[in-house]
Fold these 2 entries.
Entry 1:
Amino acid sequence: MPTSHITPEMLSAVGREISWRVSFPITASDIRRWAVAVYYPDDPPAAFWRASHARGAANDEIQVPEEFNPFAWGSAEQSPSREAADGSVEATLHIDPPNLEFVLNGGMECDYGLRMRVGDVMRSVIRLHSYRERRGRLGLMLFTTTEDTWTNQDGYVVKTVRQTHIRY
Amino acid sequence: MNLAVGSEIPAFVRTTGLANWNRFAAVNDEFIPIHMDDDAGKAAGMGAAFGMGNLLWSYLTAMLRDWMGGDGRIVSMACEFRSPNLKGQIVEARGRITAVRGEGRESLVDLDVWAAAGDTLLAPGTATVAFRRRHEQTSEPLEVATR
């Protein structure tokens, strides 16, 4: 049984930029589909469906849910490392990854800034934030946290998300 | 709107399973075996296929959003995914106010939030939302713009 999955090489990578990507412009259709999926089996709120119901919206603009993901089905541009990567943070950073088979979503922390709007283009920059370990029923678990900062086309911060994945 | 410390906000409740998960997978590109196939879920140590953490996050967000009704904004939220959301579970996204404080033009409301299925805690967390203070009410939406 390993005493640690964290190598000196992995520790030295903390803080490094992992990847960046730029979304396609957010469309009203994207929003409607997202809202239908989240609110299923109920109808989604009208603010995500019809512009006239979106309080504070300007000119035929429906609201964008705070947690909407404009990168779900691809990016307009992305860093070469993101194009090449197929798996771990470590592989993207060209360091040896730990030999762990399973990955779970461990949790998220999000700070919100300016709300996304239809037509916005998001730029996401992801950095390696931290590693930690804990022993549990699944064995020695590796918690890897990345920090993803989104800015819109005007440079305003839309959100910063720290996402933790658990590998075991 | 009751902003008393200790009060609970209306829950967001969903009976969950492949009907929800498949729809969310389609919008968030999460067609991952552990969310679709019982054997994959068992191999991962979870007993069966289970729902996405990102969907639980959406449920918690929807709870806050529906409660605020367009009058406020979500400042921050955090949660951990502790237990798998299994098929057939009735998931309740809930919140309880823990503090109310003023900051500039806004009233900030801190909450404990959580998603649970019966006695099983799926995702505990915290959130902070902001409302414009009564005397600052205008037709302009609350926005925070930083570069």
Entry 2:
Amino acid sequence: MTVTVPTDPAHRTAEEIGRTAAGPRPLPPLGPTREVPLPDVLDVTLANGLRVLVARNPRVPMAELRLRVPFGPDAVATGLAETDDAAVSRHLAAAELLTATLLTGTSSRDRVGIDDELAGVGADLGVGVDPERLQIGGSGLAVGLPTILDVLADVLTDAQHPDAEVLRERERLVERITVARAQPRTIAREALQRKRFGNHPVAREMPTGPDVAAVEPADVRALQAAGLVPGGAILTLVGDLDPHDAVALIEQYLGGWTAPHPARRLTAPPPVAASNLELVSRAGSVQSQLRLSAPALPRLDDRYAALQLANLVFGGYFSSRWMENIREDKGYTYGAHSGTEFVPGGAVLSVETDVASDVTAAALLETRYELGRMTAVPPTADEIDAARRYAVGSLLISLDSQGGFGSTLATLAADDVPVQWLRDHPARLEAVTVEEVGAASREFFAPSAFTGVIVGDAEVVGPGLRALGGVDLP
Amino acid sequence: MGAVRVGVVPDLHRATLSNGLRVLLAPDPNTPVVGVAVHVDVGFRSEPEGRTGFAHLFEHLMFQGSESLEKLAHFRHVQGSGGVFNGSTHQDYTDYFEVLPAAALERALFLEADRLRAPKLTAENLRNQVDVVKEEIRLNVLNRPYGGFPWILLPPVLYDTFPNAHNGYGDFTELEQASLDDAAAFFDTYYAPGNAQVTVAGYLGADVDRVLALVEKHFGDIPARPTPIRPSFAEPLPGTERRAVSPDAHAPLPALAVGYRLPDPGAELDAYLGHALLASILGDGEAARLQRRLVHVDGLVTDVSASAGLMGPLDARDPDTFTITAVHPPSVDPDRVLSAVDEELDKLAAAGPDVDELARQVARWSAALHHEDDRVMYRMLGLGARELLYGRAELALELPERLAAVTSEQVREAAAALRGQGRAVLIVEPGTQPTEEQA
């Protein structure tokens, strides 16, 4: 038997539902702004070179921890240069495997022992790596901070990467990479990174299965000794804690983490050069991934706030020109987003949407139209004010939690952006003029500045893209 | 004023407006942010046969304008006030919410009230949002590996009735058939003020009564309509194992999902929480039973997880699903994975977890609940959903204590209950290309 509820047969019509006797009502004004200043941040560098940023936020009895270690291909360990493709591949594969086995054993704790100790204080730690840096992040009950730091120090100074664990994790990593590479977003990301950064290591965000399969346990242990070092690393801690006590604890547990050389930073990739888009075929796709990119500005550039507002107006939030066009007017997509990505030495603009195969060419046409419109019909004062309110408000919201504030502090510090930049940013956004946004729009959104890729079923989307032009087909 | 205060516990204030709309206020003096959520007591289990996906499609329509707000105006006003927004459709409820700087509280109430009073449902917006929803389904289901695994694929194996078994995202053909009149009927029936609840959380100023007066000002004149009688979705427990195979053209590795029935969280909360902790003991962290056995000792699977609740714990009324999912290499027979799962469940059904093992999972749960409390958005949505589903927002606050009180014996009983009933087994096979119509 099926259980369904018949809807009311005597219901109103859609038209009747949409109006009341009183008619439309006015939008209430905004009330008084509530100022809650960001907490103070204690910023110290330990003798071993580890920089520590700590802030108190007692909202919940937790602590959020982020450790970022620059982790570029390591010349000290292997003598390799970034131009040596095979050596970079070995480094990236070993780095990925290192993250998978970092928490699997030290001289005094095994895999289960590490997890049991963390779980006992409600803590979780996760390890990740990209071409630029290795990150350890997590949270736990604030009262458990000594335990968390004890485990962290143990794995940083004494991770054994036991043979059996490395071999099992190697097997799993190959399987996981296979799964990840089946995801259209991963395929599109890899194609975009290659297109805009060429052979530079920053483009290589995921190793290949064969490269991982070739990594030996000794390679992982060597990489830990050479690369996972405190000089230039940054530890951020936000939570229900006293910052000075927390720094003393960090000194106590992590002071013994030392190395004779600093962590290695990745070099800057070459600037993104304009070109035709490249169509990458994925047979059987029912959607296409559009990924366009152009140069952008780092946060400390005087024009950054203007570019940030220009980007919001173009595609940086729901109420943007591009989203309102291709989603809310045309129905080509569920989501469209543009934003700045920071890379060593600079920044790039990324313009991304997924659309049905049969409207791929049409969506590209509309995307080019909206890019061109940013230069020919620059954002109006009203558009800029809406974007400004959103930029200021969404920043306030994103910082209103331990995790959000901690992640932002960690991200900014890793890019050498001072905390004061964050405190000043709302005022900087308020001061941006219409002319400055117009200048940024013309400079950074010109369609001729872009490169990029489209991933889709070439048999289905190829003819339309060829006819539209500006796309290299496989 | 039509609002009647019906109860105050620390940090929670309740009222019911004269039109039946329930109000929950959760002030927090230490934040510059405020959130407003409307929870409506209808989810995809209630959508009519022949209209799969309609509850979710209707959620999209609620963003398309209302009497005082042209199309796009809702988004623009929320974001132009510095806020963020979203909505989501679950088994038993649909939520709409926005989080903004505290200065925008009254504006947020206005925006939510206008669409609950008089949404502008038009044929043009309906067609546009059918297209958008189809893109959402292509993105999340059709164009990727393991799309809809297990939340769309497992229920039809475990359940027999349409409400519990069908695809909540919807079939394309049925989405395309949705009419404006369907939308009008759905709104008039289910979006009655007596079938909805407003939650306001975050910075509410010094005077909670002032906020209650603002809620009354904006929502109070929505005329009362009959509140639909909520049907029971109960089904008997399956007595045997049911199996199904699902081809997935994009999947590089096989996967399997096992589904069991959970106790009714409304009637047997402690038994339900025993199952929630069982899921943690099986799947959460490197020391969890299935991680150790399946991933490391036997090396059978790439990844494994266990979860109480198809869309998360305490997110639906009865019936809901306990799931175990795994991705494994093609060389491993799924029955070997199932046997190992059964053995681990049998061990727990015989002896229950160690006291320390249980305490560690309770600590992780407490931390996760604090984590939820740290953000106004999650705190608001957690309180609102538990109030709507179980009439007890306090549950969100009491959970750490209630979980700490769960005994090893209760977890043992949960494991025994899973072993004592039938179940669903879904096997995902890499390879065959499904057509769009099948999905």
